[in-house]
Write a structure and sequence with these properties.
alpha/beta, Rossmann fold, ATP binding, ATP-binding protein, GTP binding, P-loop_NTPase, Gpn, two-stranded antiparallel ribbon
Length: about 200
């Protein structure tokens, strides 16, 4: 039986990585964090108000009745010794001041995209590109949406060459986990390449 000291040492040696989940309003960020989190996710959702109707574009997401006003938080263990802390960002422009705080120390980000409202993820793509934060674009395949391939989405968003685009179902734990694994692998390669560049 492991002692409390051994358990504490294991906790210290475990690697915890910070990941952001970003994208437009109603794209499925809260759903993705909730579906993969092994703990009860922290949510800061509020009901949409009449005042918000003047600034929130709900076209295409008419069924949406709540919105994230600060962040979502969840945690998932990828393998022994590697855990991801997930921070879902709010989607509306008026909450963007929170992004700068959330992005501090982040390994990378998932930019969720909806092909019915692809233009909504341009601000998130621009945000991470300008701050050189590695990201993957995860196309949330909504029922009834016209299917597009990863190459089509990459071209439409004018992504830098090599930026991964993956298709996913934000409601499905395994699908969400695959997105996170792709991000960790990609971000690891990007950070290693930058480190090698800086010492050469």
């Amino acid at each position: 039986m492991a002692s409390e000291h051994d358990e504490a040492a294991d906790d210290i040696s475990a690697l915890a990585l910070k990941i952001l989940v970003a994208g437009g309003f109603g794209v499925g960020k809260t759903t993705l964090v909730g579906s993969v989190s092994e703990i009860r996710p922290l949510r800061t959702e509020e009901l949409l108000s009449e005042a918000g109707q003047l600034v929130d574009d709900t076209d295409g997401v008419d069924h949406k009745v709540t919105t994230t006003v600060a962040m979502d938080f969840g945690r998932i263990t990828i393998r022994s010794g590697l855990a991801l802390y997930l921070f879902g960002t709010p989607g509306q422009d008026r909450f963007w001041f929170i992004w700068d705080e959330l992005s501090q120390g982040a390994l990378g980000a998932v930019v969720l995209a909806d092909t019915r409202r692809l233009e909504d993820c341009f601000p998130a793509v621009d945000y991470f590109e300008h701050r050189r934060i590695p990201f993957v674009v995860a196309v949330n395949c909504f029922p009834g949406a016209r299917p597009y391939g990863a190459h089509d989405v990459s071209r439409a968003l004018d992504l830098d060459q090599g930026t991964p685009v993956v298709l996913c179902d934000a409601r499905d734990r395994d699908s969400g986990k695959e997105v996170l694994i792709r991000l960790v692998e990609y971000a690891g390669r990007m950070h290693t390449a930058r480190l090698l560049d800086s010492v050469s």
